[in-house]
Design a protein that fits this description.
This protein is α/β, with parallel strands linked by helices. Helix content is about 35%, strand content about 20%. A hairpin with a 3-residue loop joins strand 1 (about 15-20) and strand 2. The two termini are about 20 Å apart. Bound molecules: zinc ion.
Length: about 300
């Protein structure tokens, strides 16, 4: 039985926006993306330079308006205010990025598109949902998405819902114990030798030079050991079915088996379901589209609950 609202939803168009530090992406999708189990063709996909909020968000509105979207989903870099009791809900929080501290990204885009219903998530939360619905997490209810590149970000979905407290998660900044003999000071501006300070892309470049990206470089064992500490914290905190790695450092075929070995050592046999589960660790499948797809799913979800 197909209801009237299902028919309306099938014909509807939703807008998806992924905000990044150097580029924004804006796309229109059929609202049927809500039920899709593999990536759908977008109706139009645009890339816009990240300059000032007024200029960038104005261009996003301009490219999306012709599609007459009925709802909007945003996936953006953080830190992001997601406290619904705050007047700053949906705004970028204090950030070193010039001009963007306090930018009301949710309000500006929703208003610019005619006051349509809108939702907002972090880029990694959206990517976790996208991987669960259409990527390497298909068939599961609980998935963690870890991106390791310029920074380290983690989004966790538990029982189909993004896990979040007052703020979004900041698991990239967990304290880590040093791999034997590692004397690197760390380069996180807030914590020095937190996880991101030790093995983000820029940290690895500082430590080992540009050759660290080579698959046979000696640093990969060290990278795997630090990231396995994160995977252990994720496992003991959320017990997901899959932990999916992405990003320039994280998404590497040669890293996956090293991560699985390091994870087994770090777990020390102490997990009911995951002590011997090598499938727990895997690579994400949706690449650079994960955040945008997650934003579109969020938009369709917002529309379906209108
Ligand atoms: Zn840090």
């Amino acid at each position: 039985v197909t209801t009237l609202s299902e028919v309306a939803l099938e014909r509807a168009v939703v807008a998806a926006v992924e905000g990044g530090g150097t580029k924004f992406r804006a796309a229109a999708y059929p609202a049927s993306i809500l039920e899709a189990t593999e990536p759908l063709e977008s109706l139009g996909d645009f890339t816009i330079d990240t300059t000032t909020p007024a200029e960038t968000l104005g261009q996003v509105v301009d490219v999306l308006t012709p599609f007459e979207p009925q709802a909007l989903g945003i996936a953006t870099f953080g830190p992001l205010n997601l406290d619904r009791s705050s007047s700053q809900y949906g705004s970028i929080a204090a950030t070193p990025k010039p001009d963007w501290s306090g930018a009301p990204i949710l309000d500006d885009l929703a208003r610019g598109l005619g006051g349509i219903a809108a939702g907002i998530q972090t880029d990694v939360e959206a990517a976790a949902i996208a991987e669960l619905r259409q990527g390497a997490g298909r068939g599961f209810e609980s998935v963690a998405y870890v991106t390791v590149g310029t920074g380290i970000g983690v989004g966790v979905v538990v029982d189909g819902q993004v896990f979040r407290g007052r703020d979004h998660l900041e698991l990239g900044h967990i304290p880590v114990s040093r791999t034997d003999g590692d004397e690197f000071a760390g380069r996180c501006p807030f914590h020095g030798d937190c996880l991101e300070g030790m093995v983000s892309g820029p940290a690895l470049l500082d430590r080992f030079g540009p050759e660290h990206v080579s698959p046979d470089h000696h640093s990969w064992e060290l990278v795997a050991d630090y990231l396995a500490q994160l995977a252990t914290v994720i496992t003991w905190s959320f017990s997901p079915d899959r932990i999916l790695f992405s990003g320039g450092v994280g998404h590497n075929d040669h890293l996956e088996p090293l991560l699985r070995d390091a994870m087994a050592r770090r777990l020390g046999g102490y997990s009911v379901s995951h002590a011997d589960n090598r499938e727990l660790i895997g690579l994400a499948q949706l690449g650079n589209d994960a955040g945008l797809i997650g934003a579109a799913i969020l938009a369709a979800d917002v529309l379906s609950s209108c």
